[in-house]
Amino acid sequence: MDVEALLTEARTYIPLEKLDLIRSAYEFASKAHEGQVRASGEPYLNHPLNVSMTLVELQLDAATVAAALLHDVVEDCDVRLEEIESLFGSDVARLVDGVTKLRRLTNRSEEKEISSRIQSENLRKLLMATAEDHRVVLIKLADRLHNMRTLGALPLGRRRVIARQTLDVYAPLAHRLGLRRMKWQLEDLAFRHLEPKQYRRFSRLIATKRAERDGFVEEAMETLSAALKDGGVEARVLGRPKHIYSTYLKAMRYADQGKNFGDIHDLFALRVLVESVPDCYKALGSVHNIWHPIIEEFNDYIANPKENGYQSLHTTVFCKGTTPIEVQIRTYEMNQVAAFGVAAHWHYKEGGKPDSTDARMAWLQELTERRDELDSEEFVESLKTDVLTDQVFVYTPKGEIKDLPRGATPLDFAFRIHTDLGYRCIGAKVNGKLVQLSQALRNGDVIEIVAAKTERGPSLDWLNPELGYVKTSHAQSKVRQWFNRQERGQGIETGRQMLDRGLSRLGIAAPRAEKLAGKLGYTSADDFYLAIGRGSLSVSQVAVKLGTDIETPEKKVEISAPTKVSPGSIRVLGVGNLYTRMANCCSPLPGDEIIGYITQGRGVTIHRKDCSNVINEVEKERLVAVDWGTVEQVYPVKLRIEAWDRLGLVRDISSVIAEAEINITDVGFVRDEGGVSILNVDIEVKSTAQLSRLVARLQSLWSVINVIRKGETIVREQVSR
Q: Is 20 a catalytic residue?
């Protein structure tokens, strides 16, 4: 590519007098990058030229194209930003500064040490600049797109790192901005380097289907075009391409449902473009007149646009009898937005800066308002969890729509409305019914927060990830802020009490606080207790650390917990799944040499080989060779659960234990005079961590007062296995 091709394309929409700015920027970049080559061996200047061409295809203004040509000169050529401003103006300089990294990594050892932190800081700087001028992120996305197209020249390790960041951050960012064309290109390119075998497999599968698909779609297009014409709708009917990564994701979801690749509906897809919104609905009627619709596969994104501004009607119908085909119906303007997102509607003033009030960028404004609350890595994590995930759309009682990440709870919603509302939240109604604060919200839910009249403050349970009260980084940071405002002394005492109470319930005796604090990276016991009291460290995390990091005693500890033999695990003559039972006379344990004795009507009884009954057995033909199969290490634990008596209490407790995949071996139930039910439950657990999660879930049940572990502590050397 050369600059003339770039100028020819730009001339179709940029005024002639502004093309000189682009040419001047090219000439400056050409001198600055002279002699530089990329890892592929091509001249470095090819990179900014390709980035600029991507932006011209989006029809960005002259200042943005010029900034794209210059975007690496400050970082790679030691050009000062002041020189850019003096030659090309403050607008271009501001855009170049926005995409210039804070620091360039100079060697591999430095990269390994600080790469993650520097990448987080650079991304944070990029989004801060984007909040001031949205064109910054478009330059960066175009830069990333060309880098992904030429990624093959880099070593495997670097390719995988860049591809992973692209898939986790930049492709979702393009989606959030409505840049669908750029999104799928980034996804496919990243997928190619992260999963090359799967990429080649699905490329071949799609190609294999192409001949069948093309013939089928062409016939469907002709049928639909005729129906639209008969219905008086002027429309253009197109086949819609299917992209490799999205096909792979859909195939994985189908595999989980027991379906195969051939069941994927929208490998066959049509797109209908019309002039107006009324024509969209008229076209929908024509589609449903000729083909039978699948009702549950209909979505009206015109009446309810996506958060990135995307609008379209989506319907899936049975074409030619039993073949499902997806049809998307939209106006030409909507199609432009679908391809180019926010760039499709930005109108630049004479000064070149776009209107910064675009509603599609409201999420970025909210994120930047929290810049002082979060360090760079927390900022990026908040971006991933709160912004770049799948969204659900819910409503306030007044009908205002709010978007939240999928999996968000009523508490996340409360903090999204206002921090004070989150602090005062004591309950929530979803669609008019009281629900648990940990319930995941769904599209279309109407949320009403039940709030105390005065601030009562959050519960520390809200920060317990096992309980699932808050999922967004925004809500988590607000809860932590509340506890951080409390007196340090109070926080230390609260943490000490929480740790003592929590470990006591688990039956774990902790080492001295100073030793435990050091193991967990704290300089003093007070800081350690304060972290627990403020919610940044959970008792569950401490319990897990105790179960994995305490040094093993030199003397072997006697294992008091039994080894559980899985049903059907013992193999008889090399065959499993036969009925067996353990002999009471010698009680064999895993590790013992064993032999089987065929009984009449009771399967095979397992004895130790040195059992006197085996040695003295007369009918030697009844003895058969057996060996141990899969053995699962489990440890008995006795729990005392105190709760206010209510209907369904035992059922709810049993369900929680069953969901944790923990076996109950015995249950005792008593009721004291005060109306408190006491359940003594014997269970078998695999680790301290599993027990900790179970206790946390049990304590969250309605009417449960206390959960205490009785008896001896788990031998940590064994539990950590």
A: no
